[in-house]
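To: structure desk
From: M.T.
Subject: fold request, one chain
Message: Could you run this one when you get a chance? Sequence is below, nothing fancy, just the single chain.
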Amino acid sequence: MAFTTAVREHYQKDLDGLRSAGIFKVERFIHSAQAADIEVEFPAGSSPKKVINMCANNYLGLSSHPDVVKAAHTGLDTRGYGMSSVRFICGTQDIHKQLERRMTEFLGTEDTILFPSCMDANAGVFEAILDDSDVMISDRLVHASIVDGIRLCKAQRDTFKHSNMEHLEDKLKLHSDKRLMVVITDGVFSMDGDTAPLDKMAALCEKYGAMLFVDDSHSTGFIGKTGRGTHEKYGVVGKMDIITTTFGKALGGASGGCVSGRKEIVEMCRQKARPYLFSNTIAPVVVAGVLQVLDILSQSTELRDKLEKNAAYWRKGLTEAGFILKDGDTPIVPVMLFNAKLAQDFSRDLFDEGIYAIGFFFPVVPKGQSRIRTQLSAAHETRHLDKALAAFIKVGKKYEILGRTKEEIAAKYGL
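Reply: Done. Structure tokens follow.
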């Protein structure tokens, strides 16, 4: 079918519907390196404005760290710009194997395999290790990339209520006749900022003979005493069967991801995971940068300690101001607004005050759960947080939401 006028009008109508519903997403253009202070063009065509970034995944502030940038330059000079190939043909360099060994050591697993992204890792792992004799039992709030990976796999699917261990145990009993069972969860749930109780999950998996999978993308590098992740936080290092994570957040912020865990799982991915077999290898500049990040993290916990302090300071300030927050103890601090249009208007007003924080709404979060998701960084100084807090309070007063309950905000703006 040709792209006729009728087809064009069909899509234009759908897009107009998104706009009228207040859920049309508009991209902003950054004219600087990623950092706590950035220059953003918004709206399109305007002069870039200097703002404080409160919504990046740059948790440890390493996206533009001079040592990481220098290491990337060295990688570019010594190993080139790109591999122009997949791993099993001619796309594996010595530094790719080096990074796999370093991640295995850092995460406390048996082996690791690199992927172009964590989304690719999640898309490839389940299909590579399971078939229709098996079952996947996932937390109902797992990341969209996990959902996509589950859909690509022929194994049976089931879910359990978010972080509800009694419900998980019921599901493990229900599926005890399956050949293999895999319990699937995020480590840190990126929309809410809470963590999965991996100690309890590991105990249940051991009791019922299930494997345990965790996507630790919003944890690796800064959660746990030495930043290993949620499995370190909950004391189950060495007990995880499968960990997927990214290099696109705390570990440098560029791209790439991995599957780490039992050596047999990793080898199955190396043999059968389609995103690994049919996608170009991670660029050498990224590998070199991540290796430098791991060197930085091995020397000190200073960055994760600062991040933890910043998150506590920010959460305390917002709570005392009267905002409704999601409970949690991570650098993800969602400010709940409940109404999609309010979230977008609030975000625009913050931008006018020099604060860059994006409104989240359906389908990124459920309807009636719209929010501003703020994310802290070790690159933030107290002056950044104080200015951001003052802006949040000013805009909060404008919309009369400070000290209000969810029901009161809903009565004024709707859900």
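Reply (cont.): The chain has 16 helices and 14 strands. Let me know if you need anything else for the meeting.
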